[in-house]
Structure of SGNH/GDSL hydrolase family protein:
Amino acid sequence: MKKTVLICCTIVVVLAIVGEFVLRMVWGFCDAPLFVVSDNYEYIAAPNQNRFRFRAHSRYNSFSQRSDEPDPSKKKILGLGDSVLYGGTLIDQDSIASTLFSMDADWQMLNIAAGSWGPDNCAAYLKENGFFKAKAMYLVVSSHDAHDIMDFTPVVGVHPTYPDKEYAIAWWELLDRYLLPRLGILFKNLKKAELDPDQKVVEGIRKKGVGFNPGFDELKAMADSMDIPLYVYLHAELCELQKGTYNSQGKEIIQWCHQNSVPLTLELERGIKEDMYRDVIHLNEKGQRFLYEQMRKDLLLK
């Protein structure tokens, strides 16, 4: 009996060790991109990171951009946006649109983005960090960005999408960050659910900010002051694609662009397909390549 117990315990220990190794080395547990708090633009990825997560690499330079260090030999474009441009940890660094663009010709697109950022976050970042001698700004927005206004609600170290430290044990991360929250949903405990609550709105993501996002005007004023163009790319949520039209918030952005003579790319008119999405709003690798191709049309094929 004691021998059987000892064998069982040994098997459990070996499986736990092997599992820990597999979770870390194969799936990138305990290697999540970390975030830091900002007094000016709420939060951003911590600088100087090189992560491997869910079999995808992500790199962040000294300016917290998901890009290589600014290359003085290349002309710069400021890629501005939220998680659509940022790409997320499920997309490899070499497959996100800004990286694909930077591999092309003599240009480098700096990926200045973070999940749930709005244009005002982007403007505040540029006020703090400067313009990197850029030749253009390329702002990727979705309809909800019309009212996605900074409110400085704490998320870093609070929401699981924005961790500020790594888990010490991969098994505990799997249990605490992924399994328990999903089990909690069964008991209506949504506190630590992994998905952004905004994504659960079937009719499309809606933000509660009062008034039109001031970041649009701020970015336009910055671009004008440097005598460089500001381009706006209006990404479509999956429900907008299915309906074939942007919602009321998207139409506010369209109206602002027309009133301010800002070049506007409407993704719905460029042939985006359902198989380019990985959820209700984010792009998969095929979608990121599609976004890159639109960037190239707008910026390089003039």
About this structure: The first helix runs from residue 2 to 25.
